Amino acid sequence: MARLSTKSSRKGKGYYILLLLAACLLTSCSGKHKDGPPRFHVDETRIPDAVPKIEKRAKYGNMKTYRVFGRQYHVMKSSEGYSETGVASWYGTKFHDRKTSSGEPYNMLAMTAAHKTLPLPTYVEVTNLRNKKKIIVKVNDRGPFASNRIIDLSYVAAKKLGMTGRGTAHVKIRAIDPRNFGKQRTIAKSVRRAPVESVTFGYDVYLQAGAFQNRSYAEQLQHLHRVKNYIALKSGQSKTRLLSIKLKAVY
Question: What is the distance between the alpha carbons of residues 109 and 159, in angstroms, rounded to a whole number?
Fold first, then answer.
């Protein structure tokens, strides 16, 4: 994921604040209503993914076990190596600005999610297996408690995955270790930016194009291929006087 420039980052923050104010006004003025998307357009492309960082476990929401609708859940001690495939859903305006299980207010315009048993917070990569879109979200809430769902995404996270219309999507979740996230991005950027010319060897590498008993045949091959970096024709030690032509390998 590419780092945003200062200028584009400021524009993104300004757009995000305007959306947040609009959401607060709408939710404070409305009464009881069903959950759904906001009544204003949200350009999800201007809202960046969550950036994994090292955080302390939340004071709330990390009890060893808890019970909802008669079912008991056991919170994981660690998210290391966690990966799961299943159905994702999303939640929006009905829960906007309410407290999450971790104590943070739910923001439908932030890249967050709810999970039944991952430690709070945990950063996860979510892949929509239908369209291959990927996002990174911060898990800071508990849910969903429908038996066939594994994660509940914020409205904007769901929109970035292209699943708001359907309501659910078949996804793959993978936990991210914040300690390695920055290193992985740095290595990936270095590999992408490395020019071909930077690949060097401590010795010459040659490609042998042929071996001939007659010097004229070797010279003909040299002429046909317009070899610029032609090394000298070499005579072998045998009586047949094998002649070789060598070309420099180009990288």
Answer: 10
Q: Are 27 and 93 in contact (CB under 8 A)?
A: yes
The answer to whether 114 touches 141, Cβ cutoff 8 Å, is yes
Q: How far are the Cα atoms of 199, 205, 232, 251 from residue 202, in angstroms, in the given order?
A: 10, 9, 21, 14
219 by DSSP, 3-state: which? helix
* Nearest of 35, 38, 39, 44 to residue 16 by alpha carbon: 44
Average pLDDT value for the chain: 79
First to last CA, the chain: 29
Where the chain has pLDDT below 70, the residues are 1-33, 184-214, 216-251
Q: What is the pTM of this model?
A: 0.65
pLDDT tens per residue across span 13-31: 555 555 555 555 444 444 4
Q: Give how far the C-alpha of residue 22 lies from the chain's centroid of Cα atoms, to the nearest Å.
A: 29
> Which amino acid would we find at residue 141?
D
Q: Please report where in the chains the tokens 């071909």 appear, as a residue.
A: 196
Which tokens is 148 given?
Answer: 């066939």
For residue 121, cis peptide bond before it (omega within 30 degrees of 0): yes
